[in-house]
Amino acid sequence: MLTATDFAKLRAIIREEIENETQAVKEELQADITMSRMRVQTDIGELKDRIKNLELRLTKMHKDLKNEIKMVSHFLDKENMKTLKRVERLEQRLSVQSP
Q1: Which of 72, 81, 84, 97 is least surrounded by Cβ atoms within 10 Å, i.e. has the fewest?
Q2: Distance of alpha carbon 16 from alpha carbon 24, whole angstroms
Q3: d(CA 72, CA 69)
Q4: Chain centre distance of CA 6
Q5: Are residues 88 and 98 in contact, defined by beta-carbon separation less than 8 angstroms?
Q6: pLDDT of residue 98
Q7: pTM of the predicted model as reported, rounded to 2 decimal places
């Protein structure tokens, strides 16, 4: 039969083993957390770079679009002026008054 001191020794041994295993698991989890944090920070850095590239491309596209709009507006204005002159000449030839 086991005595009280035997039980105390067994408890101490079991407690020590549990603490050792717990410490090993804790250290492993801390290492995993550190590695995961490093991966996340790397991913965030890559995403920041991609966002910056997109912002630059968007700015360039905006500038190009503004230039295109200016060119179209200028072209349409010139065409409108040509049409207006043609109408005026036709009105003069036909002796018609514009409203």
Answers
A1: 97
A2: 12
A3: 5
A4: 64
A5: yes
A6: 67
A7: 0.56
Which DSSP string corresponds to 10-62? HHHHHHHHHHHHHHHHHHHHHHHHHHHHHHHHHHHHHHHHHHHHHHHHHHHHH
The phi and psi torsions of 49 (rounded to 5 degrees) equal: -65, -45
Number of CB atoms found within 10 A of residue 14's CB: 10
97: left (phi over 0), alpha (psi -120 to 50) or beta: beta
pLDDT in tens, 55-80: 999 999 999 999 999 999 999 999 99
User: In whole angstroms, what is the distance from residue 68 CA to residue 79 CA?
Assistant: 16
Q: 42-51: per-residue pLDDT in tens? A: 999 999 999 9
